[in-house]
Design goal:
- The protein has 5 helices and 11 strands.
- By secondary structure, the chain is of the alpha+beta class.
- It has 2 domains: about 110 residues, Tumour Suppressor Smad4 (Sandwich); about 80 residues, Orthogonal Bundle (Arc Repressor Mutant, subunit A).
- The strands form 2 sheets. Strands 2-1-11-10-7-8 form a 6-stranded antiparallel β-sheet.
- The protein is globular, with a radius of gyration of 17 Å.
- The chain starts with 11 loop residues before the first helix and ends in a 10-residue tail after the last helix.
């Protein structure tokens, strides 16, 4: 099983590699392979199509991941933007926990899930570039309490298990055997910790899930325990 993001356990050298790559100005993918090694895949101007799948001929082969289809997804550059498209895979391609139904433009910090493997798309712009839509990589990662993290895991569970929407407060309360008001209190604290205050109210829970996955604070391992 691969915790492909593992962002919460980057070594100093790995973190430096990601920051240096981002500041170089070119987009790239970050993920971990079957041996848990961090890999950075440059998406420079010389590469405008990258196929992803279990076939050896894919530009980005994921042979170790048994839930990846032979020809699973396609990354393509068009008009200065990168898109990802599912190629009729068995298990689908998810971006920020939402199943991709058509080619989707990627933005900085998007979390892509293909099989059991997760990637982070980095736009590669400098910290002050307007293309950056997520906090700089060298900023402090939120540090929720144990109770808040349990709520966060349950919030993300539907997305990790089946690509569904964020769990409701009542669903979380019933799973954790706490009151709905307790869940609401933790959710509000998590909104503050993950700095989603400026996000429209109807989108805050989805954005919280996205950022929890992007930081690596929640991964597929959490729902298998």
């Amino acid at each position: 099983m691969t915790d492909a993001l593992g962002l919460h356990r980057r070594t100093p050298a790995e973190l430096k590699a990601v920051i240096d790559a981002a500041r170089a100005g070119q987009p790239f993918l970050e993920y971990r392979d079957g041996d848990e090694a961090q890999l950075l895949v440059p998406l420079g101007p010389e590469r405008d199509r990258i196929s992803i799948g279990r076939l050896p001929g894919c530009e980005l082969p994921l042979a170790w991941d048994t839930e990846v289809s032979r020809a699973h997804a396609l990354l393509e550059q068009a008009g200065g933007a990168w898109t990802i498209e599912d190629r009729g895979s068995s298990n689908g391609t998810l971006v920020n926990a939402v199943r991709v139904a058509r080619p989707q433009v990627l933005r900085d910090g998007d979390v892509i899930r293909i099989g059991r493997t997760q990637f982070v798309f980095h736009a590669g712009a400098g910290d002050d570039d307007p293309r950056r839509t997520t906090p700089a990589l060298d900023r402090v990662t939120p540090n929720p309490t144990d109770s808040q993290r349990k709520v966060l895991v349950e919030l993300c569970r539907p997305a990790l298990e089946r690509g569904g929407a964020a769990a409701s407060n009542r669903e979380i309360a019933e799973t954790l055997f706490v009151s709905v008001e307790t869940v609401k209190t933790h959710i509000r604290a998590l909104f503050d910790a993950f700095e989603v205050g400026d996000v429209p109210q109807y989108h805050k829970r989805t954005e919280l899930v996205r950022r929890a996955l992007e930081t690596g604070l929640v991964s597929v391992h959490d729902i298998e325990r």
